[in-house]
Amino acid sequence: MLAGLDPEQRAVATALHGPVCVLAGAGTGKTRAITHRIAYGVRSGVYQPAQVLAVTFTARAAGEMRGRLRQLGADGVQARTFHAAALRQLQYFWPRAVGGPVPQLLERKVQLVAEAAGRCGLRVQRTELRDLTAEIEWAKVTQTSPEDYPAAVAKSGREAPRDPAETAQVYRVYEETKSRRGNIDFEDVLLLTAAILEDRPDIAEQVRNQYRHFTVDEYQDVSPLQQRLLDQWTGPGGGASLCVVGDASQTIYSFTGATPDYLLNFRSRHPDATVVKLVRDYRSTPQVVHLANGLLAQARGEAARHRLELVSQREAGPEPVYTEYEDEPTEAETTARRIRDLLATGVRASEIAVLFRTNGQSEVYEQALADLGVPYQLKGAERFFERPEVRDAGVLLRGAARAAADPLTAGAPDLAGQVRAVLASRGFTPEPPAGSGAVRDRWESLAALVRLAEEFERTRTAEGLGTDLAAYVAELDARAAAQHAPAVEGVTLASLHAAKGLEWDAVFLVGLTEGTLPIIYAKTDEQIEEERRLLYVGVTRARKHLSLSWALSRSPGGRASRKPSRFMDGLRPGSSAPGARTGARGGRGGVEPGERSAARRVRGPVKCRVCDKPLTDAVERKLRRCEDCPSTMDEALYERLREWRARQAKKQGAPAYVVFTDATLMAIAEDVPAGRQELALISGVGAMKLDKYGAAVLSLCAGEEPEEDPDGVEDDGPVDPA
């Protein structure tokens, strides 16, 4: 149970008695750590499975947790969302605590909010209605009454979508109408459950006897209402049975009432708590992790003081790519072509994502991918198990599982073969149909069921368990109940918020301009910092390939008035860090060309060419300036050098950094050497590289294209007389 865990994960798994606080950075294996903790507690006899309740925030995450616990032999442990766990308790205890049937749950409150607005004499557009509904939800999870709503908005600095007094009026009428009709909404589920436990000590004691051990995932996202319910579940001094897991740097849902305060103050509330930090990043390459750490290094506020410095455990990968485009269509079309190129190298479409700040940005990328025939899926659209073709396939598979001898599956060599045979009767083929659209979407859904069968068979075989169609159908039913959908083979298009908890081999972060990220209505310091954390979440979704891009105008020919996001300042090539010093450059470090031999380098301390401060960091020494001192890099030259380097690396079949590192190319683009002596003085340009690449680099610096020899390697050309 503990063999595959790193030291910190093992510390989590063996800390069976609370209070325990796990500060887990992105990609550090937090789900692995907490599921092994629960399973270790069960297998060692410390926990009884029925006495463990693990709660998280999405049905998908709860389903994944249940699946992992089953594989670890911890059947019987309850893993649910806050709302699902509360609803079960409310339905069970309502007849005893209140009497009569449980009020009917409103699946969607929008229609009732619209009716309440009409009763208040307000005309509300559809988009305004959605915002108004979100405001009511925020008020309820922060336990704010209609009367107190205007003051609460003012105190929080929240940007209200309409006049707070009008919203309070609609909120009041909504609550009155809902109560009169005997309905409750999802927030009421938490409120009523907490109230019953507060008012009925006998029921509270029964719940606490049932559940002795609690685990809360994504604890940075709890709301005051959820914390109130959690306090009732654990009871006075209940920290002894509590384990919380979270990362304040991934708090991106404060607009819904979530707050990282409970995570950040956990040690204050529970002075005897065991605190474990997970910082070994198993997801992303060092290059991606370096960028993520750099983003947070510029952060401010309480969450920033508790940031985790991630340490990548993976081999080196490509550097993140920063690209500026003239307009949005060009950005989308070029992104789509780069995705097509990745697909050609063998990267699966389901391992690629395009992430944006708002859902309204998706359309241009949908069109660009469709034009190239690249399949995609829009996250947040129709749920997988609710698609007609998936429901139809489920009916067929259940029928085949029940049949003693189904002719469709006769002769199939394995489980996946049986599933293919059944789905073939509904048009599934081994190869996808050409193009995109509804036909391709239908095929992708069926293909996802086939891949799930292959994965299910591999897992069961490795565990020494049998596999048949009936067991597979049971797995499908369990996943459908938990909305734990398999991956569809298409490029994912999603908002940054919807991408939380997911990961891909390649991630394209697009539309990174001021006014979009940070969003234009983010005014306060804390709102700006949450926008920074949103970009951090996007960056840490990438395992290997990461692209960040922005467009200077919305449409072709438009005024180039946009600026790249401030969050990339000091991180993207050629930009200065926030608060960078300004002033005249100090020449070339006080040394004129020709004063040194090209074969010898200066020994001793290297000083910043701008502020004259001694440099110790390797990259700063290479650039001969502090990271936050102004850069004079020729960005166009830098891009030409990168393109040339990529061609060289491809011809040699080697990583790009083998030719020159990014830092060396940046130093070249800042110094723009005019001859071999100046080029030789740049750190990273040794004698061998000078001989091999010197002429080509100098040609690029002179604005010329380097000549290539017949073997595809640049010719050294004539020796520079200097």
From TrEMBL:
Domain of life of the native organism: Bacteria
EC category name: isomerase
GO molecular function: 3'-5' DNA helicase activity; ATP binding; ATP hydrolysis activity; DNA binding
Region described as Disordered: spans on this chain: 553-599
Domain HRDC: 631-711
Residues that hold ATP according to the record: 24-31
One GO term describing the cellular component: cytosol
Keywords from the UniProt entry: ATP-binding, Helicase, Hydrolase, Isomerase, Nucleotide-binding
Family to which this protein belongs: Belongs to the helicase family. UvrD subfamily.
Sections of the chain in a coiled coil: none
Protein name, per record: DNA 3'-5' helicase
